Amino acid sequence: MIRIRILLGAGLTVEDSRPLLHCFSESNRPVARPALAAQVHRVVEDLDRQEARLSRARASPMVLLG
Question: What is the pLDDT of residues 30-53, one digit of tens each?
Fold first, then answer.
């Protein structure tokens, strides 16, 4: 459970977390592995896309104010 909570807290989904549970040490600390790094990069890219979409959405109503 600790490992899943760490991954969920980092923005991964439960589905994304399952194959990454082996990327931890005995003390439940993340260990840099290609699978973990790749998934973290995907999460960051997704967050960047969401941020851009929200920025555009925020700007749209502001046009009404001039």
Answer: 998 999 999 999 999 999 999 999
* Angstrom distance (rounded) from CA 11 to CA 31: 17
Based on its alpha-carbon atoms, the radius of gyration of the chain, rounded to whole angstroms, reads 17
Give the span between the Cα atoms of 3 and 24, in whole angstroms. Answer: 7
| CA pair distance 35, 45, nearest whole angstrom | 15
Model confidence band, residue 21 (pLDDT cutoffs 50, 70, 90): very high
pLDDT, position 64: 84
d(CA 52, CA 6): 26
DSSP β-bridge partners for residue 24: 30
Model-level pTM?
0.70
